[in-house]
Specification:
- The chain is an alpha+beta fold.
- It has two domains: 228 residues, no CATH class; 180 residues, Nucleoside Triphosphate Pyrophosphohydrolase.
- Strand 2 and strand 3 form a beta hairpin.
- The longest helix is centred in the middle third of the chain and has 34 residues.
């Protein structure tokens, strides 16, 4: 029952935040479809740019919340608006000459409106289909996982966000396909581009808005049902289960790491357990808000029977929603033979062998997250300064990364700034402009009060 009230509050914010994401992101597309028939064509592209910038500002505010926010739908809609802007500009300039005709065979009326739904619906269908078929994890999710760690990537909130993102994206794709077929059929066979009659207003303005309102009601009921299931009168569920903290040790001896085959991942749908290579030194304890290095060293000695290891912190994965956090540590051994007489078992692997296991999906997801963060921060720290400028004269130079060198590095893997440097540095495209925009975003975020919606 520990922290059950805080869990309910955090899960409520996360669940209803999914409905909020849909309301805001798809609301921007609905605004575009509503405004476009009411303004002249020359103003549609600036309106799209304003909507895009407004959506980025909202994303910045949302990322400043206590509970992690899924920005994937915002990213999709941002791409959709950018593509719509490009299509609008291309069409405007192509049809600028005399004698231009529309697809219906009617002369282009430059003084009339441009029906945004005819562009936004097909573009939305194509973009959502692309994201659903994309096998590689998008950059926005990679950065979120690196920022929040295991909480988002492998925790309950991460699985909830991923499942609902796919549901919302499929739902959006179905709606956009339906709108494309209906509105393009009406446009090809019934629309006359002299003025807008009642039927035009219905198909190009009121029908998209009606579907948007219906989607709000439908998804609102869906997330209310999820909230009842996870947060209301369910004493046997995750919300009421005891909070816990996991302390993990990556055991490194020289240029090798100790791994063992153990149950690592529980599938969300059926609870099946998969055995993959992972660290053999992992302990689950009652919930601890903090866990310092001396306690971790004593815990490692009691768990493994190895007393001479050097314990150093890597980073923390705090969880303010379900209160099941993870503390990550290095355990450096002076002699790998100490494991033979210890309480733990495993095999020693080189970095190359570890990478092969990862490429073959034979390692645990938490281990993958740990090494992704360690490698990204270490390489950024070794290659650039804190402003993202190269420490070496050679462009795109990459220093070596060896397990035996980790012990001598003085880098803070908890410092999220190095994650940003790994993405935005002097070797990246448009570095100065992007750095300026990033600084403006950080300043805007610092001046934005932290809001808790739906609490």
């Amino acid at each position: 029952m520990f922290h059950s009230h805080q869990r309910r509050e955090g899960l409520s914010v996360a669940i209803f935040g999914l409905w909020r994401n849909w309301t805001i992101a798809i609301g921007f597309l609905a605004v575009l479809s509503f405004v476009s028939p009411l303004i002249r064509q020359v103003w549609l592209a600036p309106v799209c740019i304003v909507l895009f910038l407004a959506l980025q500002a909202i994303r910045t505010v949302m990322n400043n919340q206590r509970v992690p926010v899924c920005s994937r739908l915002y990213k999709e809609v941002s791409i959709i608006i950018l593509i719509i802007t490009c299509v609008v500009l291309v069409r405007y300039f192509i049809t600028g000459g005399d004698g231009a005709f529309e697809l219906t065979g009617q002369p282009v009326n430059r003084r009339g409106p441009l029906l945004g739904i005819l562009i936004s619906a097909p573009v939305t269908a194509l973009v959502t289909a692309f994201f659903l078929l994309q096998k590689r994890e998008p950059l926005v999710c990679q950065l979120c996982h690196l920022r929040y760690g295991n909480v988002v990537k492998n925790g309950f909130i991460g699985r909830l966000y991923h499942r609902e993102w796919r549901y919302q994206t499929r739902f959006l794709m179905i709606l956009s396909i339906a709108m494309s077929v209906i509105d393009w059929a009406y446009y090809m066979f019934h629309y006359i581009n002299v003025n807008l009659n009642r039927a035009d207003y219905f198909f190009f303005i009121w029908l998209p808005l009606t579907l948007y309102m219906i989607s709000l009601i439908y998804l609102g009921w869906r997330y209310y049902s999820l909230w009842v299931f996870y947060c209301h009168n369910d004493e046997g569920h995750l919300v009421e289960n005891p909070s816990s903290s996991t302390v993990r040790f990556l055991v490194i001896g020289g240029d090798k790491i100790l791994l063992d085959i153990r149950p690592t991942d529980k599938l969300f749908n059926n609870g099946a357990v998969i055995k993959r290579f992972d660290t053999p030194a992992s302990v689950t304890l009652p919930y601890q808000e903090r866990y310092d290095t001396p306690r971790a060293a004593e815990l490692f000695r009691q768990t493994t029977g190895i007393s001479g290891a050097e314990i150093r912190p890597i980073y923390d994965s705090p969880d303010n929603v379900t209160y099941r956090n993870i503390f990550h540590y290095f355990a450096f051994l002076n002699d790998r033979e100490e494991v033979a007489e210890s309480k733990i078992q495993g095999e020693w692997f080189t970095l190359g062998e570890l990478r092969q296991l990862m490429n073959q999906h034979l390692t645990g997801s938490i281990l993958n997250s740990e090494f992704a963060r360690i490698y990204r921060i270490a390489m950024a720290w070794k290659t650039y300064d804190r402003d993202g400028k190269r420490l070496y004269k050679f462009k795109h130079y990459r220093p070596t990364f060896r397990l035996k060198d980790i012990r001598n590095w003085e880098v803070d893997y908890n410092d999220g700034h190095w994650l940003s440097v790994g993405r935005l540095n002097e070797d990246s495209y448009m570095f100065r402009l992007r750095r300026l925009l990033k600084r403006l975003e950080d300043k805007f975020r610092q001046n934005t009060p932290m809001l808790n919606f739906f609490t």
